[in-house]
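ok, trying the design again with the full structure, not the truncated one.
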């Protein structure tokens, strides 16, 4: 039932789209469909025939390639394995194992060992490196030379590797460590280091419960092995080689991961969780401990087959192109009609603007207004409000830009404006229509805020705005305009020429202020001014609010209600910024709400609220934000000092953090109570003590690591701050 309803909705939608097309567009679509459908069917049939034929051929080739790959790689890997097993049983290698001390002086014997580990002429191109570690005697021999295991520059990495190999029960095995990298200093390999990266052939001898006696690592040149697989990869076949269930070589990581995740045991076609479908052939060589997986992505066959479908679409595209050319020719011929249509649309907009302008002039009576409703398709509302906006920096600026302002309004904003906006007597006029006064209030609040922000962000215009009372007939629009103009040139709008402001027309016989939504607008502006720490603007808005209460003759409980509401809104600002009220006010000020509601003089109320509420809040917010900035600066400085081990100057630190050195120095002095130099010295001492207590580095080596040019300078610095020389400090704490 649901599917039928969905299908019916889709058909109705298609029909609706087709019905909305003009006659020439319908003809274009029908001609295109006439050619498109047969070509697509032909392309799909050809695609299926090609897939069946090509899949059969590929399966035959896959089996042949699998045998060939097994033969090539097994010859190489098995030969390498047998050679080194035989080598470890020879006299030369046995002599090497017996050396309890590093055989620096045994040049001729070590030369034989070197030739032995490099392999013969056949194997030399497959071997990129070798490592022999005499674990029992503690020395290492590789193609970079001889050195003590204690002096290994990547000792921690080497220790971790040996500990891992202790857990492996086999003594001869393959190991893939592509995730590890060769130990280097820049682009040069560390000479006294053990390279455990890449594809390794491992031979080791256990020393009973004592662990490994010696271990050989033969690093295979994977580039040569990958080059062998390139020819198959270019033909669309992927190769993965496993040694003792570990990946030794792969040309396609995705196939390998899918193979392992699905635990494939035999050859065949598999659809994996990733959505890919692979045809896989598996060959196992138990004697060598190798497994060869060769496969291809069946989607590649489909990809080639899609060329038939693509050809169909090319033909469709050519035909569509011809139709477009024909249609463009027709459009060129019909251009005068299109221009006429645009002219009519522009005229319609201008007529509506003229209609609104005539309303503002008061030249239309109720009957003519009613007739224009029908003529222009305008739906009247029961309630209206008007917004008038002028530029504070000069009328010419607004006059030059009003066309751009109107054209740049979003469709959503335009939909909220009744009829159309107009530029009238150096002012932008916006009408709002609604079902009742409350809805008109809310819509006016939203429209004013969005238009003000739009003009500030897009045109950098500082505006003064005036808003009329609600009115209910369009022939009252002239009166509303006068109200806007009176509010617009209110003193409050002229005081601050650098920020946008709003003034509301006050009719002394209007409804009580409780029904006036614009109390909320001024309240929001006041809250924003306090939160932005603009004390002068906040004072002006506060005085305007108190003035409005007096002008409305609001007294007694009603006055206390509005004052309490305003004060409550102010007192919520610190909490929003993460500041407790107890941090802002003294305990004597806790009854502030009661005291202020008992003050009836306007100037005294403004002064009291400003001094006892607004000023403390702004002062605390400013302190909070400055403290946050300074605390963050301190954290950044301490991190730079730690990363550089104290070897960074104040100027360098200031450049990194984009501050002036003097400002940075003042912040550190205020936050820590010490100078930048003292902080740098503290970090150097911390690093020096750590290395003295946790490493075997000499005092000279530690001095060099801390970038002292002279070891005596380091000793003098350390003794001046600690009271001991570095050597005495180490001796004292190792006692």
């Amino acid at each position: 039932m649901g599917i039928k309803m969905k299908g019916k909705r889709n058909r109705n939608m298609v029909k609706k789209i087709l019905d909305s097309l003009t006659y020439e567009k319908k003809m274009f679509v029908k001609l295109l469909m006439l050619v498109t459908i047969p070509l697509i069917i032909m392309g799909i049939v050809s695609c299926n025939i090609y897939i069946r034929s090509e899949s059969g051929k590929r399966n035959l080739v896959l089996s042949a390639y699998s045998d060939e790959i097994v033969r090539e790689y097994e010859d190489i890997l098995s030969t390498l394995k047998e050679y080194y097993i035989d080598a470890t049983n020879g006299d030369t290698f046995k002599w090497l194992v017996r050396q309890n001390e590093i055989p620096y002086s045994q040049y001729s014997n070590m030369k034989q060992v070197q030739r032995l580990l490099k392999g013969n002429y056949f194997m030399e191109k497959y071997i990129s490196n070798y490592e022999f570690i005499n674990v029992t005697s503690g020395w290492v021999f590789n193609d970079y030379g001889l050195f003590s295991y204690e002096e290994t520059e990547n000792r921690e990495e080497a220790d971790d590797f040996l500990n891992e190999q202790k857990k492996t029960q086999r003594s001869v095995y393959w190991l893939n460590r592509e995730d590890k990298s060769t130990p280097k200093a820049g682009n040069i390999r560390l000479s006294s280091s053990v390279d455990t990266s890449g594809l390794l052939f491992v031979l080791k001898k256990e020393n009973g419960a004592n662990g490994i006696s010696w271990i050989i690592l033969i690093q295979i040149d994977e580039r040569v092995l990958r080059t062998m697989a390139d020819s198959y990869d270019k033909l669309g076949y992927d190769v993965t080689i496993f040694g003792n269930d570990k990946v030794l070589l792969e040309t396609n990581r995705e196939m390998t991961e899918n193979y392992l995740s699905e635990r494939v045991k035999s050859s065949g076609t598999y659809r994996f969780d990733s959505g890919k479908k692979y045809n896989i052939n598996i060959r196992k060589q138990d004697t060598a401990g190798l497994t060869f997986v060769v496969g291809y992505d069946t989607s590649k066959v489909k990809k080639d087959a899609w060329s038939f479908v693509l050809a169909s679409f090319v033909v469709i595209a050519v035909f569509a192109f011809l139709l477009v050319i024909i249609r463009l020719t027709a459009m060129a011929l019909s251009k005068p009609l299109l221009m006429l249509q645009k002219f009519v649309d522009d005229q319609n907009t201008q007529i509506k603007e003229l209609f609104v302008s005539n309303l503002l002039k008061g030249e239309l009576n109720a009957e003519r207004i009613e007739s224009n409703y029908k003529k222009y398709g305008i739906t009247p509302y029961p309630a209206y409000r008007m917004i008038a906006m002028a530029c504070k920096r000069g009328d010419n600026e607004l006059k030059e830009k009003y066309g751009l302002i109107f054209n740049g309004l979003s469709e959503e904003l335009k939909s909220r404006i009744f009829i159309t906006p107009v530029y009238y007597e150096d002012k932008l006029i916006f009408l709002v229509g609604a079902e009742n006064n409350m809805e008109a209030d809310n819509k006016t609040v939203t429209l004013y805020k969005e238009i003000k922000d739009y003009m500030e962000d897009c045109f950098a215009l500082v505006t003064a705005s005036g808003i009329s009372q609600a009115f209910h007939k369009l022939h009252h629009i002239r009166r509303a305009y006068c109200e806007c103009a009176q509010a617009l040139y209110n003193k409050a709008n002229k005081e601050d020429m650098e920020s946008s402001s709003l003034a509301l027309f006050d009719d002394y016989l209007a409804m009580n202020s409780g029904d006036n939504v614009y109390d909320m607008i001024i309240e929001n502006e006041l809250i924003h001014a306090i939160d932005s720490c603009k004390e002068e603007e906040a004072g002006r808005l506060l005085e305007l609010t108190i003035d409005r209460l007096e002008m409305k003759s609001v007294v007694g409980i009603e006055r206390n209600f509005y004052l309490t509401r305003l004060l409550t809104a102010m007192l919520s600002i610190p909490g929003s910024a993460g500041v407790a009220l107890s941090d802002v006010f003294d305990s004597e000020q806790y009854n502030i709400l009661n005291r202020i509601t008992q003050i009836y003089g306007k100037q005294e109320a403004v002064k009291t609220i400003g001094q006892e509420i607004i000023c403390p809040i702004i002062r605390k917010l400013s302190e909070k934000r400055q403290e946050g900035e300074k605390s963050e600066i301190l954290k950044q400085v301490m991190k730079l000092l730690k990363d550089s081990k104290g070897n960074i100057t104040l100027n360098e630190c200031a450049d990194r953090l984009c501050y002036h050195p003097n400002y940075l120095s003042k912040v550190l002095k205020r936050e820590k109570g010490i100078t930048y130099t003292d902080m740098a010295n503290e970090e150097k001492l911390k690093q020096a003590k750590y290395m003295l207590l946790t490493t075997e580095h000499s005092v000279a080596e530690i001095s060099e690591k801390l970038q002292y040019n002279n070891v005596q300078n380091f000793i003098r610095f350390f003794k001046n701050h600690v009271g001991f020389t570095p050597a005495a400090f180490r001796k004292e704490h190792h006692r």
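Keeping the full-length input from now on. The domain at 644-734 is CATH 1.10.10.60 (Arc Repressor Mutant, subunit A).
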